[in-house]
Amino acid sequence: MPLEPGQKVKAEMMKITLTVKRKLGEGTQGEVYLVDGPHGQQALKWYKPAQATLDQIAAIRALVQAGPPRGAAGARFIWPLDLVTAQGQPQFGYLMRLIDTSRFAELGEVQAHLKPVPGFRSLTRISYQLANSYRALHLSGLCYRDISDGNLMFDPIGGEILICDNDNVGVNRQSRSQVWGTMEYMAPEIIRGEADPSTETDLHSLAVLLFNLWCWHHPFHGRMEYELRVWDIPAKRKVYGNPVFIFNPADSRNSPPPDPDYQTVRARWGYCPASLRDLFTRAFTAGVHEPRRRVTEGEWQRLFLQLSDGTIPCPSCRAENIWEPGGKILACWNCSSSIPLPPKLVVTTSFGTHHVLLTDGATIAQSVITPGSRDDADPAPVGQVVRNPADPAIWGIRNLSRVVWHVIFPDGQSLDVPSQKSVPLNPGTRIDMGGVSAEIIL
Question: Is residue 1 in a domain?
Fold first, then answer.
C-alpha cells in the first residue's frame, strides 16, 4: 500500500524512526517519498507489492552493507543508506540522499528546454564523471544493469552528476536482479536472449547514454525505426536486437531520413569533435557485434578529459568550441569566426600525450598527470595559468602541487619551481612535474 503523510517508518540498521512528509514521484518499481528524521530530510523509495520480494530485500541489505565505491567517483551514486519497513505492511523500501531538483536536471528537461542546455565544457565534465563513476563501480566487481537517461541527473552549469536508482546494482555475473535494463539502452545480446546483464553490457548502455547526451537522439533511431508502423515490443526487439548505427559509414540502411525531426541529431553530430565521432562509431559498429571491442570507461575518460582541456570560447560570439590536438586552425561552429589558439602544454605519460590549451585561468588536472589512478575523481588541480600581478601581459603556469617542478628553458638554463611559484609561458620550455614530462608549444 502507498504511504500516507504523517506515517511512521523505521530504518533497520540505523534503528531510527522517520516521518513520511509527502510523495515526490513514482516509477515502475515504486514510489519516492520525502521523509524527516534525526538526520534531517531524506528520500525514501517504497517498493510496489510486486517488487517487494525476498530477493530484493536481500539485495538492498547487501548494498547497504557494502556501500558505494570509494572516493568522489562513488559519492555520485545515490546509494541505499538503509532498509526501511512499516509496521503491519509486507512492503519495504530504502533510504537515500535527497536530490536538489532545483540544481540537478534530467536529460529530458534539458531537451525540452525546461532547464539550461550544457555548454561544451559542462558536457565534457558530465560525460567524464559518468565514465569515471561507472569505472569505479566496475572495478569494485559490480555492474549497474540499468544505465539509462532516467537514472542520471546533472548540473547543466557546473557539470556535476548524480546517478540514481542504484537498487539494481549487483555482483558482476553472479547476483540476481528483477530488472534487466531499459530496452532502449539494453545491449543487443540481452534483447536476443543470449546474455545476462554484466559489465560488458553496461558498456553498451553507457555508450548509448553518452550519445543521447551529445546528440539528443538514439543511435539506432533512423530510417529503419522511422518506417515502422507500430512501435511495440516486437518492433523494439527488431531495432535494438540487431541494430544499425544511424551514422554507420559502411552501412546507410538506417541513416536519418530527410525529416525535420532528425535535423537536431544531424546538427549535433556535426558539432561532435572528430575523435568523439570515431569512438561512437566504434561503439555502435564493432562494439555492437563484439562486446570485447566496446569502448571502455577509461577510453571515454581520457577522451572527455582531452576535449575539456581543448575547450575555448569564441572571441566574437563567446560560443564554446573544442580544439583537438593536431588542429592548426579553429573556426567557430556558431559564427564561423577564426579563433586564435593560445600556447599548449603537452604532457607525456605512459598512456600517451595529453594537450592542455593554456587559456586564461586554465587548470592542469591531477588526472592528466596520473591518468591511470583508480580514484580518478577531479581532485584539486596541480597547475593553473595565471597573469603576473605586476605585469598582466606576462603569463605563466603556477605550480599548485606539492612537488618541486624542474624547468629547462629553450636556452638551456634550468630552474626549480616550488609550490605557488610560476613558470613563464615560453614555447620550448620543458617541465618535469615530479617524473612526468611536459612541454610548452605553440
Answer: no
Query: Would you state the cell numbers that stand for residue 330, as one nine-digit string?
Result: 579553429
Task: Please give the tally of structural domains in the chain.
Answer: 3
Residue 137 and residue 254 in one domain = yes
Whether 135 is covered by a domain: the verdict is yes
Percent of the residues in the chain that have a pLDDT greater than 70, as a whole number = 96
What is the secondary structure of 224-245 as a DSSP string? HHHT-S--SHHHHHHHHHS---
pLDDT for position 27: 84
Comparing C-alpha atoms, which of 300, 42, 304, 289 is closest to residue 147?
Answer: 300
| pTM for the whole structure | 0.94
Kindly tell me if the per-residue pLDDT of 41 is higher than 80: yes
The answer to whether the beta carbons of residues 407 and 399 sit under 8 Å apart is no
367 with 271, same domain? no
- Tracing cell 577564426 back to the chain, one arrives at 338
Taking only Cα atoms into account, the Rg of the chain, rounded to an integer number of angstroms, comes to: 24
Domain for residue 309, yes or no?
no
- Which residue is listed with cell 571502455? 296
Do 252 and 140 lie in a common domain? yes
Residue 61 lies in a domain: yes
Nearest to 247 by CA among 272, 213, 227: 272
Are the C-beta atoms of 156 and 116 separated by less than 8 Å? yes
Report the CATH number that the domain containing residue 45 is assigned in CATH. 3.30.200.20
User: For 58, phi and psi rounded to 5 degrees?
Assistant: -65, -40
| Residue 160: domain span | 107-301
| Same-domain status, 252 and 130 | yes
Q: What is the mean pLDDT of residues 21-37?
A: 93
Phi, psi of 43 (to 5 degrees): -110, 150
**pLDDT for position 371:** 76
For the chain, what's the residue count?
442
- Cell reading at 431: 617541465
pLDDT in tens, 218-251: 999 999 999 999 999 999 999 999 999 999 999 9
154 grid coordinates: 546533472
Each as own residue / partner, the long-range contacts of residues 434-438 (CB below 8 Å, 24 or more positions apart, any chain) are 434/369, 434/401, 434/403, 434/404, 434/405, 436/347, 436/348, 436/349, 436/369, 437/347, 437/348, 438/345, 438/346, 438/347, 438/348
Nearest 5°: CA angle at 106, between 102 and 109?
Answer: 85
For residue 199, pLDDT beyond 60: yes
